[in-house]
Specification:
By secondary structure, the protein is mainly alpha-helical. The protein folds into two domains: 46 residues, no CATH class; 217 residues, f41 fragment of flagellin, N-terminal domain (Up-down Bundle), CATH 1.20.1330. The protein contains seven helices and six strands; from the N terminus they run H-H-H-E-E-E-E-E-E-H-H-H-H. It has a two-stranded antiparallel sheet with strand order 1-2. A two-stranded antiparallel sheet has the order 3-4. A two-stranded antiparallel ribbon has the order 5-6. Helix 1 runs antiparallel to helix 7. The two termini are 27 Å apart.
Amino acid sequence: MRIGFNTKFRGILADLNRLSSEISLTQLKISSGKNFISPSDDPSSVVISLNYKQGISNIEKYQRAIEDGLSILRSQEATLGNIQDLIARVKILAIQAANDTQNIQSRQAIANEIEGIISAILSLANSQVGEKYIFAGKKTSGYLLGEKPFELIKESLPDGQVIEKVVYKGSVEDLEMGYGKNLTLKIGKSGQVIFMDSGLFETLISLKKTLQANNMVDFNKEQYSIQEFINKLDNIWNLISAQRGKIGAQISHLETKQNLYESFKEVLKINLGNIESSDLAELATKLQNLTIAYDAALKATLMVSNLSLAKYL
């Protein structure tokens, strides 16, 4: 069967259009550095590329969670270190106050310093990272205006006594953080465990009252011997030291996870680059070949066009 002249001509024009499109696409790939411009260019590579991008996005989400957790843990560790220093200072003051050479005025001065230390520790217990309270358990925010997780309350009794106590308004549940698929980590301990269950504030307030009473023991007023307070301070100091050790282990664990995630992310980025980035040398050769083919097709079109015109001369 003979193929008509018009059919041949349309075929040549179709080749020209195809070559022109391929040349334009190749030029776009070279200028963008991408192996595909639209999903239809290479559907399978696009799917793989999307999977890599999703993986990188998930890792970055985990990394942000780890950074938040590390920020809180490091702040907790540093804050507890400061509190330990203050407890050690109180112990020194208590030993001084136990000396029989101290008079009521000197014990009052020591009591005043301890009162300042109580305020300092209360402020440290209410420490924040950003807008999050670091010792409030799961209730890191959401407090009323002027309200904080730890508050010192003073109540006057009919007999003239003033009851002082610190109340905790945070969560008794420890703060938890998700840092990977099905992975969670408790961030330190809640303030209930560190400050309330340990009896830290109760011990300091009672010691202050005992000194204000010139070391007169009165069990009805929750006042004890200074030596008992010193023993309690030692126990509290040790409890906080143990907690700092646990926090240090958590920091180390998260830092290891952070490094692993960073290494994995770099691998995914390399793989993504390999599948998305174009081979410029290969594309340059392809462009040259396409250009040659296009020129040849164009010459063929011109030749056929001339023959077509000759028919009508």
